[in-house]
Amino acid sequence: MEQLISEIESYAAREGITPQKVLRDAIGANWRQWELWRAGKSSPTMRVVDRLRKHMTASSAHHEHRGAA
User: Fold this and answer.
1) 13-22 long-range contacts, Cβ below 8 Å, gap at least 24?
2) What is the value of pTM for the model shown?
């Protein structure tokens, strides 16, 4: 879980958004979900993790492509 938290924090920092916004955009999570994950009170399913990573990868690739133009 620490790896996923780190990935989300890094992505959010690069994008200039909060981790809560990442979860909201990627999986439609409620605003409290991030704190529950960080506190160890909840954790995502692998399906949710896959959706998050896909969202972050697609968004990063889109930004890189736009920057190259």
Assistant:
1) 14/60, 15/59, 15/63, 22/52, 22/55, 22/56
2) 0.84
State both tokens at 32: 């409290």
Q: How far apart are CA 65 and CA 19, in angstroms?
A: 23
Residues 2-59 have pLDDT tens digits of 999 999 999 999 999 999 999 999 999 999 999 999 999 999 999 999 999 999 999 8
Token pair recorded at residue 43: 């954790």
